[in-house]
Amino acid sequence: MPKLPLISGFELVKILSKLDFAVVSRKGSHVKMQKNELTVIIPLRRLIAKGTLLSILDQAKISREEFSKFA
User: Fold this and answer.
1) Nearest-CA neighbor of 48 among 56, 40, 39, 38?
2) What percent of the chain has pLDDT over 90?
3) pLDDT, mean over the chain
4) DSSP secondary structure letter of residue 21
5) d(Cα 12, Cα 70) in Å, to the nearest integer?
6) Measured distance CA(6)–CA(24) in Å, rounded
7) Percent of the chain as helix, strand, coil, to the nearest 5
8) Is the pLDDT of residue 1 over 80?
9) What is the mean pLDDT of residues 34-49?
10) Are 69 and 33 in contact, with CB atoms under 8 Å apart?
11) pLDDT tens-digit profile of 18-31?
């Protein structure tokens, strides 16, 4: 299982955009992205905690392997 990188919220938005997620709205320091019926909220921080990143990937139905191709 690949190790998760330390990435920022802005980098995560770019990666999810490559995976066909679209930015729906931004409120304060959070961005809402959607793909079909899947919705994820991304905090725009310098570094996203690994637990938070795992939770976002789980909500987006993205495996670590698929994510590591783009990160």
Assistant:
1) 56
2) 82
3) 92
4) -
5) 10
6) 24
7) 40, 25, 35
8) no
9) 94
10) no
11) 999 999 999 999 99
pLDDT score recorded for residue 41: 96
Q: Which domains does the chain have, with CATH numbers?
A: 9-70 (3.30.920.30)
CA distance 41 to 60: 10
Tokens representing 52 are 């938070």
Identity of residue 7: I
Q: Which helix (H) or strand (E) holds 36?
A: none
66 is written with which tokens? Answer: 């698929």
Q: Which of 19, 64, 51 is nearest to 38 (CA)?
A: 19
Report how far residue 18's alpha carbon sits from residue 44's, in angstroms, rounded to the nearest whole number: 18
